[in-house]
Amino acid sequence: MNKQIIFRPIEDTDIELIEKWLMKPYIKTWFSPINEWIDEICKRKDAFSWLNHFMVFVQEKPIGFCQYYDCFDTNNLEDWYDVTAPNAVYSLDYLIGEENYLGKGYGKTIIKLLTEKVVSLGASRIIVNPDHDNEKSIGVLKANGFALSADGTYYLKEFDKKDASISRYRLLENTSKIHTTPLGAERMKRNLALEVADVVGWCVEKIKEKNCKITRKGKNWYAETDHCIITINAHNYTIITAHKTKRKMR
Predict the structure, then answer these.
(1) Listed residue (96, 89, 93, 123) closest to 111, CA to CA
(2) Does the predicted TM-score (pTM) go above 0.85?
(3) How far apart are CA 15 and CA 116, in angstroms?
(4) I need a labelling partner for 100 at 20 to 30 A (CA). Which of 64, 114, 182, 247 fits?
């Protein structure tokens, strides 16, 4: 399902549709007052620039919207948390405005993708404060590994920055930056017996494969697939080398 869902930054032309969604009874119950949500979106480039709004698409159809923000930026606006440093604690919101897409796992995937996004930015904790009667939203959070805080105020999820799924997301999000040197390209051709002109393109396709295992160790990423390991510098996205893996003796 992840491949079907796409986020796009909200544009002014989306506001009419979002307002229509917010007026639907099953959404209005949890998102009142509606005018505040619309005001935040309309002022997203100035007064509310700390909010990151996105339209949610399944293929080419808009089905909802979502947002994330650094809680440090709103510390003086909220009374349910106290955050003392930036880029550590984030929060999320989302809605599905098209009824035909409810109850089919899209909410779970939206939260999963938002979570991966903010952790790739450096978050070590995400906190969300749904209405305690909103059982469906709470269920989506729990399905993504969120748990009720000790004082019962909100739901949270904490992260180890070495988490493998986050490393994979961060590398895949930046494949356009991947490059190598002429010597590196020649070395990889030799190590892997490649007969392709675009060595970087070949490596990127391998990295994007579903079965590619991506790990982060120290300053490098290691992408392992099809009996080869590709080593990429995690800071500048340079492919350092690639070589065949040794097959284990049975």
Answers:
(1) 93
(2) no
(3) 26
(4) 114
